[in-house]
Write a structure and sequence with these properties.
The chain has a domain at 3-85 and 161-222 and 357-433: FAD/NAD(P)-binding domain (3-Layer(bba) Sandwich). It contains 14 helices and 19 strands. The chain has helices at residues 25-31, 58-69, 94-103, 106-114, 156-164, 211-216, 238-242, 274-281, 305-308, 319-329, 335-342, 373-376, 385-404, 410-433; strands at residues 3-8, 11-16, 46-54, 72-78, 89-91, 124-129, 134-139, 153-155, 171-173, 177-183, 186-191, 196-199, 201-204, 222-235, 252-256, 262-268, 293-300, 350-357, 368-370. A seven-stranded mixed β-sheet has the order 7-6-15-16-17-14-18. It has a five-stranded parallel β-sheet with strand order 9-4-3-13-19. Strands 10-11-12 form a three-stranded antiparallel β-sheet. The termini are far apart. It comes from Lentzea rhizosphaerae. Pfam families: FAD_binding_3 (PF01494). This is FAD-dependent oxidoreductase.
Amino acid sequence: MIIDVVYVQDSQIQLPRSCAGRQSDAERGANSSAEPVPDVPEEANVSSFHVLIAGGGIGGLCLAQGLRKAGVSCTVYESAPGVVLTGYRLHMNGAGGRALQQCLPEHLFELYMQTSRTTPRREVMVILDHQARELGSRPHIGPPNDPDRPHTAVNRRTLRQIMNVGLEDVVQFGRAVRAYETDTDGVRVLLDDGTTAVGDVLVGADGINSVVRKQLLPDVSIVETETRALYSIAPLTAELAAGLPEALFDGFACASGPNGALFAYGAYQPRRPIAEAVAELAPAASIDPVDPYLMVNLGLPPATAPNWGDVPDLWRSSAQTLHSVMRTAVEGWHPALVGLVEHVDPTTIFPVAIRHLQPADPWPAGRVTLIGDAVHAMPPSFGSGANTALRDAAALSRVLAQAARGDRPVVEAVAQYESEMRAEVFPILRASADPRALDPNFLPDDVLAANR
């Protein structure tokens, strides 16, 4: 017997390399009463193939939905006690939208579409100066969008809640993967409660601090950009909207001033009231109503603070102090942009450290792989983090379904996914981390943009 030894939180964990079987007894019992997935052909069901997913964020939930739709068994281990509700607006493009269409049941995809943002006049990123004068614009990246009902933007919490519908027997909240070991037959994971689970494949969807990546690709480093940000929202009333520059209602807008502060703006106005759409399309689902808002994010690059005063420790400051930081940042700006910051709800402000991963050199494929931020966490410069995670989930669910049916070896399927992911997503990671990322003329040739 081979023993793998890994170190987690200063304790030595020994995992016997024996992965016979595919699910723990508890998991087999939990899944035995699961309802069959609608609209999945009977021949697609392969009960003996099981996928373990570490992380129940956007990528992990989308992957679980795609696997279930294809008739492939899976379990999601999410450390949080429930669906994570933090975060605001997410930009969506054709890649992310089509991934959701592939993975979600039809009624949940329609719910996503109806609760997405209304179609803006221009699907571009607009660059403004601090007096709200337009300096340029850049097309959003990604494949061509739907011409009739384009993918625009979603509320992050709403999307997570939609993707959790129907996965009650799949997602195990309050349980996290701490380590894994593999053999030629499968994967065994050690969970933080001391129990283990086994499956055919392990997918790390556990974010930039991924435990799975740290074991699989220990040399991949997290880059601390030293840029800090404050994310917030301002309730979008008709009165507020009437006084704002029209460019703030395009696809996305950024404004910077001579003091070095950078603001990013994004509107969220659902095509249909969320409660109304849920009542029709998923009446039993627990999905919170969300009123229209404008996301207002302040970015503080490391060199900016000396230009406009001392910045407190953002993680130890009160909501009122954080709001004061935002107010200071727009002193002398266009009155409409100053007024927008005044309308920010202080209780919605939270700090973020902007970090990203270095693109990993190619690695040998196996029964453990990664999706989303676990493998290509990127700055928000191109609004692609969620879209690339969804893209990964859809691509991986396709090839794993092929492996589950016995159409191809597991490792071959994973190798195809990883090769295509590196080719398609790593250029976006590199572009997003480039210092020129907010230049409207910066759009590398290896990054797909339909309206270049």
